[in-house]
Amino acid sequence: MRSNVATILLISALAACDGGAKPGDGDVDVDADVGAPAAFIPQPTGVCPPLVNGDVTFAPAGVPPRKVKLAFTEGGAAGPLLLYWHATGSAVEEADYALGATKAAMIASGTFIAAPYSDDAAGQFEWWIVNQSTRQDDFLVADEVVGCLAQAGRIDTRRIHVMGMSAGALQTTAMSLFRSSYVASVVTFSGGIPAQFTPPPLDPGNLFAALIFHGGASDNAFSTDFRMASETYRSMLTAAGHYTAVCDHGNGHTIPRDAAPAVAQFFADHPFGQTPSPYAAAGLPASFPAYCAR
């Protein structure tokens, strides 16, 4: 990454992202539970592809088609969706590494996992917005995945979750802000809000929960202090009324391999509109890593 990576998410770049699906934009208001807050799900803008395990190409209008690696139980009922964004220099298989054996358990219980491939044209940092670009391609690909899976009846639209590592975690942070119309909860591994990024106002209509991992004082990569970026993200969300918890695993700029069971539990406990968090009064589950704290 370039030395000015601290300005990864520039205001000018983010200002061009219009926030994604919103009421009145021709999207679908989906309320899975009577009386529960509704997620506004984008309509597909291209022809939805057949859904199979492995690489599937989505073709949203206005951007180049993009491969997305899907993993799910064939013929299963509608379940949660997990969108995974990988780190710079990594690949879609990073989701396998990050989730370990927990991935198979999640899929067996109905979770649909989608890991978008990055666009080589985006630049050095994998995702357009992480390269200070105003292009919305990655968000539009995510919208198309969500829209197509919802249209096919394959996902529970109150359980759309996002996670990623490093550049993928910065993409996750950006997506939590600009797709809060449907994002239920997020997990970041060494992500957050770098210096010189002033995020837009949060949508008060969706107090999504965030589980924020960083590697402590040595979590520095490409001239970015990811501990500080993570804490800044946490402070912003907490001040706005979101539930957050921070997990300092102390191993620098790495994926904590012991975190996956807690990640799966966190997503299960935080569907869209789940506020207050069940952890607000009871605290984090005892099964979470000891280095996690409210």
Describe this protein with a few key phrases:
about 290 residues; alpha/beta; Rossmann fold; nine-stranded mixed sheet; two-stranded antiparallel sheet; about 25% helix; about 20% strand; globular
SSE layout and pairing:
Elements (H helix, E strand, L loop, with lengths): L10 H5 L12 E3 L8 E3 L12 E5 L7 E6 L7 E7 L8 H6 L1 H8 L3 E5 L20 H15 L3 E11 L1 H12 L6 E5 L19 E6 L5 E2 L2 E2 H14 L4 E5 L11 H10 L9 H4 L9 E2 L1
CATH topology: Rossmann fold
Structural class comes to: alpha/beta
SSE sequence, one letter per element: HEEEEEHHEHEHEEEEHEHHE
Largest sheet data: 9 strands, mixed
Mean pLDDT rating: 88
Total domain count: 1
The total of beta strands comes to 13
CATH superfamily: Alpha/Beta hydrolase fold, catalytic domain
Description of the molecule:
The protein has 294 residues and is of the alpha/beta class. The chain has one domain: Alpha/Beta hydrolase fold, catalytic domain (Rossmann fold). 25% of the residues lie in helices and 21% in strands. The chain has eight helices and 13 strands. Strand 10 (220-221) and strand 11 form a beta hairpin. The longest helix is centred in the middle third of the chain and has 15 residues, at 137-151. It is globular, with a radius of gyration of 17 Å. The chain starts with 10 loop residues before the first helix and ends with a strand.
Write a short abstract of this structure:
The protein has 294 residues and is α/β, with parallel strands linked by helices. It has one domain (5-293): Rossmann fold (3-Layer(aba) Sandwich), CATH 3.40.50.1820.
